[in-house]
Each structure stands twice: as structure tokens, then as C-alpha cells.
Write a structure and sequence with these properties.
Elements (H helix, E strand, L loop, with lengths): L13 E4 L5 H12 L3 E6 L2 H11 L8 E5 L5 H15 L4 E4 L14 H27 L3 E6 L12 H20 L5 E6 L7 H14 L7
Parallel strand pairs: 1-2, 1-4, 2-3, 4-5, 5-6
Length: 218
């Protein structure tokens, strides 16, 4: 017996998916396209984004897929990204905040520069992106999803930067959930566990190096 496919009511919605040239960001962008949404994908490398766009476009003839090269630690580039998304789609209904994970390291390994860079990438970029998107959602409602990590439930040893700033994301999200409710904007945190991505490969390599064992053993 054929199971009827669930309609997630995403057809025709306009989504901005940050850090979507690989990993979870790419996977989410793909599902949005499959559901009929128009999607702006982003990342720091235009060649990778073009390749991903060419993979996604054939998945749904009713979806529009465009890309924008951007460094989300740069506020002017964030502003430009949002402007381009609105120019392409007319508005933004869905924002997925996402960013590459910060370097692994213990307390005495990390410098002030490490802390500052992680703050700007993994927390302040979310603040800036929401600030730019909010005026478009204020009048129509919308959905904001903030990607964090399972470490918000239990800190992961050796990932001090991630443990610190991912918790900041949960505080931001919970606070804005009340603040934005009157504007019909729903905002949630996503806290994924271990999923096979480039990030997990990097962390496994670091663990293997630290413990003096093979990656297979990790």
C-alpha cells in the first residue's frame, strides 16, 4: 500500500539557509527545495555553492535556487545577503541560522583571538542575521531556526568554544521567542547529535590525535 506523502506546506515559501554548501545546512536546503520552497544557499566559496545549486535545481521545477558567497562574520556582507535574497524572492519566510563549528581545544589552548573569532562566527552572526531579516517577517510572520548542537544539553569535552557559544544561542532563542511572538514569528533552536558531516570527521581526527589512536577506533 502506497503511503500518502505529508505536505509540509512549504511550497512557495522563501528560505534563506546560512552555511549551506555542505553538511546539515546543505541537507536542510535540499529538503526545502524538495518541498517546493525557494532557497538562497550561502557559504564562503562560490565554486562550492555553484556545484550545490546545480545539484538542487533539478530536484523541483517549481523551486528557485540561488546562491550568494558570504562571510557571515562581516556585517556588511550579511546586509548584502539579505538584500539579495529579498531581491530574488520578494521577501523571506524562513531563516535557518547556521555556521561552521569553532576549533576544538581546552581552556589553556585557546587565545583571545580564538574566543573573539568564535563569538563573531557562532553567536554574533546569528544576532546580525536575525536583525536584518526581522523587518521582513514583522509584517507577515515567519520562522527562524537557530542551529546549535547537542552540547547545549551536556557540554562535550574538548569543545569549550562550541559549548559556550551554543548555549548563548539557546538563551537568544528563548528570549526572542517571547519578544517576537506578537509578530507571529516562531523561533526555535535545533540541537543535532552526532551526524556524519565534515565537522564530525574533523572532530574525530582531533580526538584520534589527542588520544594517540586511529580514527576507526574513535
Amino acid at each position: 500500500m502506497e503511503v500518502e506523502r505529508l505536505d509540509l506546506k512549504l511550497a512557495g515559501k522563501n528560505a534563506l539557509v546560512v552555511a549551506s554548501s555542505q553538511g546539515l545546512g546543505k541537507a536542510i536546503a535540499q529538503k526545502l527545495v524538495e518541498e517546493g520552497a525557494n532557497v538562497m544557499i550561502t557559504g564562503r566559496h562560490a565554486s562550492k555553492l555553484e556545484k550545490v545549486a546545480n545539484e538542487l535545481i533539478p530536484l523541483n521545477k517549481n523551486s528557485k535556487v540561488v546562491y550568494c558567497e558570504v562571510d557571515i562574520t562581516k556585517p556588511e556582507q550579511i546586509k548584502d545577503l539579505v538584500r539579495k535574497t529579498v531581491q530574488e524572492f520578494g521577501t523571506i519566510d524562513i531563516l535557518l541560522n547556521n555556521a561552521g563549528g569553532p576549533p576544538a581545544g581546552t581552556f589553556m589552548d585557546l587565545t583571545d583571538e580564538d574566543w573573539q573569532n568564535s563569538f563573531e562566527l557562532n553567536l554574533l552572526s546569528y544576532v546580525r542575521m536575525i536583525r536584518e531579516v526581522y523587518p521582513y517577517m514583522k509584517n507577515q510572520g515567519g520562522r527562524i531556526l537557530n542551529m546549535a548542537s547537542i552540547s547545549v544539553k551536556e557540554p562535550i569535552q574538548g569543545l569549550l568554544l562550541s559549548n559556550t557559544f551554543r548555549l548563548g544561542i539557546t538563551g537568544l532563542t528563548k528570549t526572542l521567542a517571547s519578544e517576537f511572538a506578537q509578530d507571529h514569528i516562531l523561533i526555535n533552536t535545533i540541537a543535532p547529535g552526532v551526524i556524519s558531516t565534515d565537522r564530525i570527521t574533523y572532530l574525530d581526527e582531533k580526538t584520534a590525535e589527542r588520544q594517540g589512536i586511529s580514527i576507526d577506533e574513535v
